[in-house]
Design brief:
heterotrimer, A mainly alpha (about 300), B mainly alpha (about 300), C alpha/beta (about 400), A: about 300 residues, mainly alpha, MetI-like fold, 2 domains, C: about 400 residues, alpha/beta, D-Maltodextrin-Binding Protein, domain 2, six-stranded mixed sheet, 13 strands
């Protein structure tokens, strides 16, 4: 055991280091957050089409008019509602289907598995912009659902399908590594008890992979929440389906941008996702994250 | 006779494998085939054709689109160069910054969550919002935050700088935004990795007489190496997919010197009706990423093998 | 195994039920048609559209519902191109006159001269705006509104900085007064065609021959070179600034306290102090650039007749007068001498300016031509490239686009 003096020295040095690290990080975080501070400060100002001078980091007045304006815009709440619904549904479905897919690619042997997986990987390298046109045409031709004249174009389902489809390859890749790292012994024990792949999947793999799936869900959620281009093409013409990114972009004009509205709207759009992140970040994977993902 | 039995057995085994796998991979496979693979094949086909968008006519023209893209204008080469530069500048800084901050945060007794959320904020903010803020920050004359600080407050410069209208300051702003936005993500990933290193490793190393630097070098860095690779590959793929910042900050100006492949693609297709050329750009982009990933893979695996990992 | 399968099935069924419930089913009764109209009107214009114009339409055509969709102006062209590719466009849309030819070239617009009443209808339109719809012998749209750039002048600054109490009739006067000021008096936003053409033409530049088929010999003529040199001169003398090149403040902001004059369309928010005026003449002539919008019917529309009806409606006198109140200058011959137009100080300025305003090059390759121009201007103003060489190269490049 350490002598009392040595222990005191050790403790102070430790506290001293802690304070040092804290201060350093705090300053770094402040500098890092300047853009956010600017946003917040500016959202409380009244600009009238002209950029504020001098530019502010800290709000000098607390004028909520920008916020009230944005909230009473008849489509802000619609956009918020749509973004929330689209994102939540898509995350659930995408994660579910991707988990199934990753299981198939990691724990079931079938001929051509590696080739097919290679194809999945290749699609990740290809820029997705041009996919929108054929995707659109496919959606347009799905006309068997009653009540829709343009196929699935401009509909929530169409958007969800495309978002889900786009995320599958990446998620399968991510999860496959994890699933592979679960020891075979565990799944064998389920087989011995008379269970099949579904049992292994629901009883062993999913519970053990909760952190990984949780992490992946957060990344996915963020991606869907801020997606702009596909939403613009698919539902841009349908006002009732507008999403937050579309709304935000619309507030930005060439000469006449009301910056305080843009910033107020941006902050409002950020709040849900920050809350979600704060809730879920504790469950983020601890360790084992990359060993699994990298080992092929 | 024996051989026939063997192949039959293999067929049966293969079929059985497929039947077991099908319920799992089918939903994903259907969605991917319809919405990703089919469009990809379509794009490849278009890149070799002249595509009239309203009528939908597709006329094969061989490699004409590729020739036009690569040799007719300087734009493509600016874009290609800019993507590489983006990767070269932002990736090391993101990794370096992420490592340092994750190491520091990891050593905190209290307040880890606070800093985790704080540094991750840029990551969860949408590209559109961030681009608008940066556009405002890098604005012209005295209404841009940076100009205001440099000229009016700190008197470091005499004149206002038109940040977003010059090649290198424009590119710089784009790079800065990329680093700022992604560093939090790297930090979080490194943090998770660091927290996965068992404390016993450090303790036994201390007992063996290792100092701080050696512990850092042989335990921390080796454990983090695969993570570095993971972050690097992701960031490089991201570097070739840069789009929104360029569209909102500089629109590729001046004269296409800050443009990137995706923006060029978008422009060719949705502004100039040249879908064939746009598809060609897309394919060149994809092939580049694949080649890069393979090279990186080889380099890293070689590295790991050499060190006897 | 059974449990998981049931769970799976439940998920699938509930998914589809959910989806079916969230769709908006379109209710249509017999004879009722719904068409979509895309536009990029700003706030004030949209207000008039929704509150004044649409009620008139609904009264006259109760069985045709028009969904007006406001698109954001910055990506409008790309949106329309996308809609051509996906086949999911509007039935009728307000489009920029400079894009009409290229859209028609792609086969995306309906030739309206095939409708029986077109001949009589077109006779009521002003020549210039109508001609923007002409492509290969057919008219692919109706003129909807026209405009041009006029001078926006800050009267207070005119007096305090330049010592002039009235707006000078000639540019020469203005330049002399501004030369001694030392800081920028005129601002233009960028080097694009819409921004620079008025100045280019004002100082004597020429783009192409009358038939718009050749640029060599015109764009690179001595007159054009002189015109650009004049602009460079003004730039060096600190009289004339280009926002995108110099990084100076935007005109809309700067006119309040820095700039004395800039050129803008009738949509600018004028005040007592900041007024509209015709562009001062140079060497005896004024110049400006014609802008405006056409209204066109898309070939993907399933209700082309109804769409055409709406297009015609938007060009009717009642609607034109209503939209005039928010800065949309009318395109009807009958309204040129209308009291509402003539008595308004702002509109009369613009109507007068229209007389000396010229059109941009009408071509299906409009986008490429715009790029050639702005690239050349960037080379000249930003990179100090030689004017004659750059214009020569630009002229050759333009020729390729003009056949």
């Amino acid at each position: 055991m350490m002598e009392k003096n040595q222990y005191q020295k050790f403790k102070t040095r430790n506290t001293f280091t802690q304070i040092f690290i804290w201060s350093f990080l705090l300053i770094a975080l402040f500098i890092f957050s300047i853009p956010f501070l600017i946003m917040i400060a500016s959202s409380f100002e009244e600009f009238s089409y002209v950029l504020p001078y001098p530019p502010k980091i800290f709000p000098t007045s607390l004028d909520f008019s920008a916020y009230t304006y944005v909230l009473t815009q008849h489509n802000f709440l619609t956009a918020l509602k749509n973004s929330v619904i689209n994102t939540s549904i898509t995350v659930v479905i995408a994660v579910f289907i991707s988990s199934l897919s990753a299981y198939g690619f990691s724990r079931i042997e079938f001929p051509g598995r590696e080739v097919l997986f290679g194809v999945y990987l290749f699609t990740l390298m290809m820029p997705g912009f041009l996919n929108i046109i054929p995707q659109f045409i496919v959606l347009k031709n799905i006309t068997f659902i009653p009540g829709l004249s343009h196929g699935l174009v401009g509909s929530r389902l169409g958007l969800i399908l495309i978002y889900t489809a786009t995320s599958i390859c990446g998620h399968t890749f991510f999860l496959r590594g994890f699933f592979k790292s679960v020891p075979m012994a565990l799944s064998e024990s389920v087989v011995v008890d008379g269970g099949g792949h579904f049992s292994i999947f629901f009883r062993i793999i999913l519970p053990l992979s909760k952190p990984a799936i949780g992490t992946m869900s957060i990344f996915a959620l963020q991606g869907f929440w801020e997606e702009y281009f596909t939403a613009k093409v698919l539902v841009g013409a349908n006002e009732s389906m507008i999403t937050l990114p579309l709304l935000l972009q619309r507030l930005n004009g060439e000469h006449a941008t009301r910056w305080e509205w843009v910033f107020a709207a941006s902050i409002l759009a950020l709040i849900p996702i920050i809350i979600l992140f704060m809730i879920f970040q504790k469950k983020l994977v601890i360790g084992g994250l990359t060993q699994g993902a990298v080992k092929e | 006779m024996k051989r026939m039995l063997l192949t039959k057995k293999r067929l049966k085994k293969g079929l059985k494998g497929w039947l077991s796998a099908l319920p799992f991979i089918l939903p994903g496979l259907i969605l991917v085939s319809v919405f990703i693979l089919y469009p990809m094949i379509f794009t490849i086909q278009i890149s070799l054709s002249d595509y009239r968008i309203v009528t939908g006519e597709i006329t094969p023209v061989g490699l004409l689109n590729y020739k036009n893209v690569l040799f007719e204008t300087k734009e493509f080469w600016y874009a290609y160069r800019n993507n590489f530069l983006y990767a070269i500048v932002t990736v090391p800084l993101i990794i370096f910054g992420g490592l340092i901050f994750s190491y520091l945060v990891n050593n905190l007794k209290k307040g880890q969550t606070f800093f985790k959320v704080g540094f991750y904020l840029p990551v969860i903010t949408s590209w559109v919002i961030v681009s608008l803020v940066f556009k405002y920050m890098f604005g012209n004359s005295n209404t841009g935050m940076i100009n205001y600080l440099l000229v009016d407050v700190f008197h470091i410069l005499d004149d206002y700088v038109p940040w977003l209208y010059r090649q290198w300051t424009g590119n710089g702003a784009i790079w800065l935004m990329g680093i700022w936005k992604n560093m939090g993500w790297a930090m979080l990933i490194f943090l998770a990795s660091l927290q996965g290193i068992p404390k016993e490793l450090y303790e036994s190393a201390s007992i063996d007489g290792a100092g701080i630097w050696n512990k850092f070098r042989y335990i921390t860095i080796s454990a983090v190496k695969p993570t570095i690779y993971f972050v690097m590959v992701n960031m490089i793929i991201g570097a070739f997919n840069v789009f929104i910042q360029v569209m909102l900050l500089t629109s590729g100006n001046p004269n296409g010197t800050t443009t990137v492949l995706q923006y060029l693609l978008y422009n060719r297709a949705f502004s100039k009706f040249e879908f064939g050329e746009a598809s060609a750009i897309g394919l060149i982009s994809a092939v580049t990423i694949v080649v890069l990933t393979i090279i990186l893979n080889r380099t890293f695996l070689l590295d790991q093998n050499r060190n006897g990992e | 195994m059974k449990k998981s399968l049931t769970l799976f099935a439940l998920v699938v069924i509930s998914f589809f039920t959910f989806v079916a419930c969230t769709q908006n089913t379109e209710l249509t009764s017999e004879g009722d048609i719904t068409i979509t109209f895309w536009h990029t009107y700003g706030d004030s214009e949209e207000e008039v559209l929704l509150n004044t114009v649409m009620p008139l339409w609904n009264a006259a055509h109760p069985n045709i519902t028009v969904n007006t969709v406001r698109q954001d102006g910055s990506q409008y062209h790309e949106m329309i191109v996308t809609s051509f590719a996906t086949g999911n466009g509007p039935d009728v849309a307000r489009i920029d006159i400079s894009n009409t030819a290229s859209y028609a070239n792609q086969g995306g617009l309906v030739a309206l001269n095939t409708f029986a009443d077109f001949a009589t209808l077109s006779a009521t339109y002003l020549e210039g705006p109508l001609s923007t719809n002409l492509f290969k012998g057919n008219y692919y749209g109706l003129p909807l509104d026209t405009n041009c750039k006029a001078a926006v002048v800050n009267m207070d600054l005119l007096e305090s900085e330049l010592g002039l109490t009235t707006i000078p009739a000639t540019m020469e006067e203005f330049i002399t007064a501004a030369a001694s000021r030392g800081s920028y008096s005129i601002n233009v936003s960028g080097v694009g065609d819409w921004d620079l053409y008025p100045y280019f033409w004002l100082f004597g530049g020429v783009l192409t021959n009358d038939a718009f088929t050749q640029a060599t010999g015109y764009l690179n003529s001595q007159d054009s070179i002189d015109s650009i040199n004049k602009l460079l001169d003004l730039h060096t003398q600190n009289i004339f600034t280009i926002r995108d090149i110099d990084g100076t403040a935007d005109a809309w902001a700067g006119i309040q306290d820095t700039y004395v004059m800039f050129f803008e369309g009738p949509w600018y928010g004028f005040s007592d102090n900041i007024v509209a005026s015709t562009i001062p003449t140079y060497e005896g002539r004024s110049a400006s650039v014609v802008g405006g919008e056409d209204i066109a019917v898309f070939t993907t529309s399933e209700h082309q007749e109804a769409a055409y009806e709406f297009a015609k409606f938007m060009t009717s006198e009642e609607v034109q007068l209503a939209m005039l109140t928010v800065g949309q200058l009318p395109i009807l011959k009958s309204l040129v001498t209308n009291a509402a137009v003539v008595s308004n100080p702002k509109w009369s300025v613009y109507m007068q300016q229209l007389e000396s305003a010229m059109a941009r090059i009408p071509s299906p390759n409009n986008d490429e031509i715009k790029t050639i121009w702005s690239n050349a201007m960037t080379e000249i103003f930003l990179n100090h490239a030689d004017v004659a060489t750059t214009l020569n190269a630009a002229a050759t490049a333009m020729d390729a686009e003009l056949d």
